[in-house]
Design brief:
33% of the residues lie in helices and 26% in strands. The protein contains seven helices and twelve strands. The strands form four sheets. Strands 5, 7, 8, 9, 10 and 11 form a six-stranded mixed sheet that branches. A two-stranded antiparallel ribbon has the order 1-2. Strands 3-4 form a two-stranded parallel ribbon. Helix 3 crosses helix 5 and helix 5 crosses helix 6. The chain starts with 13 loop residues before the first strand and ends with a helix.
Length: 228
């Protein structure tokens, strides 16, 4: 992201006037009825904490810093935050993900554990794909192409499935496996942790990885706003 993230974390990248990736996420979560948000942090942690409070949303924040962010993946951030993540159904999302309100609402109200996928988007070369078999997601990763659909890291997880996944994340990290995706842990227990594909088709749900992604998403948000 170059200069766009030289002074603040990626999630604070502006996507519309006076709106950043994380302010967009938090506003939609608040509007959907969420009251507690656990945010893992890395670089520019203090800047992010102050920014979230400045939004003055009716949310209780729990911030967990990963001091090893430069040498680990987000599986380790989840591991560090694990004590705050148990005991309830959970919405899980990456900090660089932008979605439209209808996507969050449909995911949130799903009756099973689900992950956002799209049957209409071409399979990305380097981003997540989900392998679907017997109606369930069997594998998630960037390396899968057979029987796969494009997938985005937006999940609604029932308590029983999420705690199975958290237990496996804990096992991975305590063995020293902290550089892989948390989805690697899921792939080991997908026969027990039952996550179903939720097809959002052409609705906006996309990560920002480049300045070009930011431009595409900003344009899409403008179109969505003009329709409402």
């Amino acid at each position: 992201m170059g200069e766009l993230t030289s002074q603040h974390p990626k999630c604070m990248t502006e996507i519309q006037k006076n709106e950043t990736i994380i302010s967009h996420q938090l506003r939609l979560l608040s509007q959907s009825g969420a009251d507690k948000v656990v945010i893992t942090t890395g670089p520019f942690s203090d800047i992010l904490v102050d920014y979230c409070y400045s939004l003055k949303l009716p949310l209780k924040y729990i911030f967990v810093n990963n001091p090893r962010y430069h040498e680990s993946n987000y599986i380790y951030s989840i591991y560090l935050a694990r004590k705050h993540l148990r005991g309830d159904d959970t919405l899980l999302m990456h900090g660089d993900l932008v979605f439209e309100p209808s996507v969050l609402e449909k995911i949130k109200t799903a009756s099973t554990s689900v992950m956002a996928v799209s049957s209409t988007v071409n399979l990305p070369e380097k981003d997540f794909k989900a392998v679907v078999s017997e109606g369930r997601i069997q594998k998630i990763g960037i390396e899968f192409f057979d029987n796969a659909v494009s997938a985005q890291p937006l999940y609604k997880l029932l308590k029983k499935d999420w705690e199975l996944w958290l237990d496996e994340i804990e096992s991975f990290c305590e063995k020293g496996d902290i550089t892989c995706y948390s989805e690697n842990a899921f792939n080991c227990i997908s026969s027990e942790c039952l996550i179903y594909p939720f097809d959002i088709k052409n609705a906006l749900c996309r990560e920002i990885d480049t300045p070009e992604d930011r431009e595409v998403i900003s344009s899409a948000l403008e179109k969505i706003s003009s329709k409402n």
